[in-house]
Amino acid sequence: MAKPERLPWGMSVQTKETKMELELKNLYDDFRDADTIKAYAKIIKKDAKKLENPINIMEVCGGHTHTIMKYGLPQLLPSNIKFIHGPGCPVCIMPKERIDHAYVLSMLQDVILVTLGDMIKVPGSNGSLQDARSKGADVRFVYSPLECLKIAKENPTKKIIFFAIGFETTTPMTAALLDAVIKQNIKNIFFHINHVTVPEVMRELIDSRDIHVDSYNNKIDAFLGPSHVSVISGSKIYEEFPRDYKRPVVVSGFEPVDVMQAISMIVKQFIEGRCSLEVEYKRLVTYDGNVKAQELVNKYFEKTDLFKWRGLGNIPKSGLKLKPEFKEYDAEIIYKDVLPLGEIEDHKLCICGDILRGMASPPECTIFGTACKPTSPIGSCMVSSEGACAAYYKYGNLV
To answer: For labelling alongside 45, which of 121, 175, 241, 288 has CA 20 to 30 A away?
Structure first.
């Protein structure tokens, strides 16, 4: 038997853990330091005087939106630098048709529907999964898809359907679950895949093939690339934007110092006449990303021809589905006879589509903060904790 770790004289296990927590806190505090944020603001204001035209920067990820709003970063920037809030929230872009799939599946006899927590309040045409659970459906929310293994083994007579959502960040976890299901020969876990990918929607926003999306009138001059996605996929996935569309991309971390440094990097590109891909979040993001995770995803998934994004419409090659050889696990195929197929329109007064395209901001919506609130969301941008409307509702007084 291994001997317990010997601690320094007078230090208990509790104080060692406390020390570790303090070290982590000190690490985060460095990236939230007010003096550092103000120093970057001063640099940006000085450089911004050299800009020939205003710059509109789209942060693709909802995590960036919350940092920007929570720390009041727009107040620190000069008037010729603006944020445009993009579509980077996997719950926000989930169309009602797919939410209805989750609802219908959850109401089936002998089914346990499992998904990630943000999905609980998202309203479909029949209601939310929270409503389904109140009517007796067995809906469970997990932090990790691998929790489905335990649920399946504890409920051998039930069919466990994992309603998978998220960008490149969470897709490897779904692939890891399917890998475990196959290796352990588990027969009662199935998958409804709703994973989407970031580059395709960025491309759609600036060069849409959809006649209903006026992408050529967009105001996007540069992108803040999402860091968590980039940890998996690598920064290489953004190379086309400076090369083909003349939009600089800086991959940024989520802390306020990260965001301010990334903005400074974008401004310097404009005043120096450059247009390139850069990485601010170098402490975790590499050019190639997590190759092992990518290989696992590519083993089980392939691109869909089209995936409908709420408020944006059908975007080519922007979604993933299980490869045909794994169709025995595909809930969309197994339950195709009961899943609804019709198109569903969003609420007429909701402008989430314009917000997700960066053509409007939440306060411009007539129902923002009145009929549409986090406690009674109508639009998708208010439902998720990462949604732009939820961020404005919570932190709007700071801007």
So the answer is: 241
